[in-house]
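One-letter codes give the sequence; each number marks local geometry. A record appears below:


***
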Amino acid sequence: MNDAVKAFTDDLKKNGRMNDVLLFTFSEFGRRVAQNASNGTDHGTANNMFLISGGLKQKGMLNAMPDLANLNEGDLKYNVDFKDVYATILENWLSADADKILGGHYNTLGFV
């Protein structure tokens, strides 16, 4: 995936289209902090999202790093609700009605 994203963004930059595209990846599940019996980790609550665009108003980390000493039953506590990120992209990037699409009102953030 790294090579594909790099090739894609290099092409966008070369053609002056980096500000026109928002690349958004989202993992549907997080991982628990502690290892399980098979030395892996079970599904948890917090996850990660990556946003790549020349049109981002805020770059870098959108929230603080997780606090490994402050867990919720072994799970990381998330700081940004993924539905707020979806609402932001729908409203501010796609000019769509986020409330109608998401079936409720969510906060928008300042990254786009």
The first helix runs from residue 2 to 14.
